Amino acid sequence: METTPNNRSKREWEKLQANAGNGLLDRRAFLRGGAAMAGAMMGYTFVGSAAAEPLADDAWSKAPGNIVPAYGAPSRFEKNVVRTLSNPNSEPRTSHARTPHHLLNGTITPNGLHFTISHAGNPDIDPDKHRLVIHGLVKRPLVFTLDALGRYPMVSRMTFVECGGNSAPFFSKEPIQASVQALHGLASCAEWTGIRLSTLLEETGVDPKAKWLIAEGADAPALSRSVPITKALDDAMIALYQNGERLMPGNGYPMRLLLPGWEGNMNVKFLRRIKLVEQPAMSYYEARTYAPILPGGKAYQFYFLQEVKSFITHPSPGMMLKEPGFYEISGVAYSGNGRISKVMVSADRGQSWAQAALQEPVHSKAFTRFRVPWRWDGGPGVLQSRAWDEAGNVQPTRAQIVAARGETTKVPPVTGFPSQHYNGITTWAIERNGEVKHVYA
Amino acid sequence: METTPNNRSKREWEKLQANAGNGLLDRRAFLRGGAAMAGAMMGYTFVGSAAAEPLADDAWSKAPGNIVPAYGAPSRFEKNVVRTLSNPNSEPRTSHARTPHHLLNGTITPNGLHFTISHAGNPDIDPDKHRLVIHGLVKRPLVFTLDALGRYPMVSRMTFVECGGNSAPFFSKEPIQASVQALHGLASCAEWTGIRLSTLLEETGVDPKAKWLIAEGADAPALSRSVPITKALDDAMIALYQNGERLMPGNGYPMRLLLPGWEGNMNVKFLRRIKLVEQPAMSYYEARTYAPILPGGKAYQFYFLQEVKSFITHPSPGMMLKEPGFYEISGVAYSGNGRISKVMVSADRGQSWAQAALQEPVHSKAFTRFRVPWRWDGGPGVLQSRAWDEAGNVQPTRAQIVAARGETTKVPPVTGFPSQHYNGITTWAIERNGEVKHVYA
Q: How many pairs of residues across A and B have Cβ atoms under 8 Å apart?
């Protein structure tokens, strides 16, 4: 029997769509080795168009191209793929640069687009003059040049960094219409290479009385944060390289403290000092921004962990679905507790859920790309993702977070509460015209 | 008993150094959880200096820093961390841009520093006008816009790309004194995201007569290569993203064919056409550059695989060891056959070998960073690395390669043989003054 799109598709279609409501398909539908599926896709009237003619030569096929640069940069046609800046004229206040998740794919954030927050611009540090001191409750205080650090044993790991204030707009009583970049752009993921802090602490020796360390940056605000010694001896790193090359200036060049899975602000950039102490310093950020008062009157303090979270990047607000048919829903999930174990996706406001495919390998405390095939029928849809981590934590609903921490009529982030550590579910509505909107479920 | 550097170190030192000759230490010496090692490092008189004074404030700690850019770039102090260009003035010939391995660390090559070879500059392609056609021995020829491709199921994978002519200088009779960038800089590694070619071929359908495909680029030379259909249906990808963002112009923007583990030239950039055919095209590159004649008179053709290989990046030529003491030897290993299973390192010209630590996770057909701790005693040393892959292949010696393929008195690459697919062992000599030189073992 001849394989036509229609007779083949009907049978295969039934196999594929059994997953969840409103067009979500089985995540294994398009796995490699799917020879049994051959032809099945045709049934979707996928998205390729019939090729009637050979391609005509465009201008760029007829003449030599541009000069090859010593340091590559994106095409001029990608000029809108940039970070959005909260302080483009560098006024004397904090500058946020947000990652354009909706324009990226994969799990790595390229260095040019890694989010940064700078409290007084990016310091122009001469790496040959920069020093790192480890002192306080140690047996032998030491000072390290960058050259000296370069001789120590190194490790590499993929990990996300997320600002504690990422996703603050979700505390607003009304859903703010903005892109996923504006809503979730203060989280990024890179391969970081450097020296375990524990290696350097073996050099200095640790006085048993030391329970905390204070990490201080060399930027003008001398940003400092207190870190429990247990984290320092666990997976803390003095990061020297970001995706293979030296750290970007906004990410702490020439070195930063990296505390995988913990509040971004604690990953002290431009690191110049680690002092081992008995008590936390109650420094500016830990006493103020990251210690908001909760509705019940308690303070939200020393809550270092960035908890299990996910959001859909494709499709997301600002995008337009041009026509009904097949789309891939994808996004990122991550947890400061370890590996992502499962992501479920709904297209019907949480009435039914389909398990998403996770891009292997799944790294601990790193972005995990999830994907689920979807056939949009042209009607309304409400897309959500929900993540679980290997420690058994599940991403809460927005209602659960708001019940515990309150909400605000102002547009966050506002000083005080609530603006920190939002990790609840994100909801995008697909309208009949294909527009994607931010809604609360 | 008090733990002093000296009484502690003697015992620990003996434990650590049992590995191989001339100072190579056990790769597990500095693993996390090495509490038993606490204090041991001090015995090495590691490389930190005593911290006598608190740090003085440098200029950058006293004033606001630089403006935060929309697209981040490396510090001005990293201006030498660039690709070396074989054709900086864009004359009408091929341009090579080589990755500075000696200045990088980790496993990912950042996008600005990924090697590229362009035969007529980088075409300035408008992605909205670019099309990909799949035709020939298919059931339904199709043309795809970038928007249409964006709707298909995607996958991400870490993989290296290596020019078949990488490391050509090793065919020279005399070792060429040059950096690892000059010698091995035509290989890089990134996370690529795109659509499996098999997914698109399910859309078009494949005529059983199709045994090859011809992939053609939209650059002015219309570079084309023949690829067996088995590879197309295995792990071939139409890559759209490189380390999260759209491909760099020199890496094929807006799309390239990605054939993990196969000769770089076949990973056709600016991909615009895939034609399924019965026989290979015998196109320019496969009939000329990549078909050199071997000493015995046979031709070296359709040898697509980039075989198991490794080289030490730290230390490497151009670097200077300032003083005896501890150093980390590290480098990259990779194989087009799959995962790296083992890397051995020698510091005594191959008389004894120590197993290197491999940075986890080890990806198939990707750069794997290997590391081994080393205590340089200030005498001469000869460093080598040798890699094995999971398919059981071992990196050959240079003598084995030269015996099979010949050598040349000219400085390669020269047209003809031998210049392709060198994957033999690389040897660096450490001189008494700490200089690192390229030698043949």
A: 439
* Tokens representing residue B40 in the block: 């041991």
Residue B60 identity (one-letter amino acid): W
Q: Are the beta carbons of A108 and B326 separated by less than 8 Å?
A: no
Domain ranges of chain A: 5-44, 132-174+186-281
Q: Which of A2-11, A237-246, B154-163 has the lowest mean pLDDT?
A: A2-11
What is the CATH code for B309-439?
2.60.40.650
Which CATH fold would you assign to the domain A132-174+186-281? Answer: Sulfite Oxidase; Chain A, domain 2 (3.90.420)
Which site among A3, A4, A68 would you substitute to test the B interface, given the most B Cβ atoms closer than 10 Å to its Cβ? A68
Q: What is the dihedral of CA A194, A198, A199, A201, to 10 degrees?
A: 120
CB B276 within 8 Å of CB B212 = yes
Are A104 and B245 a contacting pair at CB < 8 A? Answer: yes
**Cβ contacts of A1 within 8 Å, gap of 6 or more:** A7
Q: Which of B42, B108, B360 best probes binding to A when mutated, by most A CB atoms within 10 angstroms? A: B108
Which DSSP symbol is given to B266? G
Closest by CA to A265, choosing from A200, A228, A308, A215, is: A215
| Cα separation of the two ends of chain A | 48
| Per-residue pLDDT tens digits for B260-278 | 999 999 999 999 999 999 9
Q: What residue ranges in B18-71 does DSSP mark as E strands?
A: 49-50
**What secondary structure letter does DSSP report for B397?**
P
| Amino acid identity at B334 | Y
Contacts of B125 in chain A (CB under 8 A): 58, 60, 75, 77
ipTM metric: 0.93
d(CA A187, CA A193): 18
Answer whether 0.90 is exceeded by the pTM: yes
Q: Are B153 and A30 in contact (CB under 8 A)?
A: yes
List the single residue in A with minimal CA-CA distance to B193.
A106
Distances, alpha carbon A370 to alpha carbons A342, A408, B247, in Å: 9, 31, 21
β-strand partners of A172:
A408
Q: Is the pLDDT of residue B4 over 80?
A: no
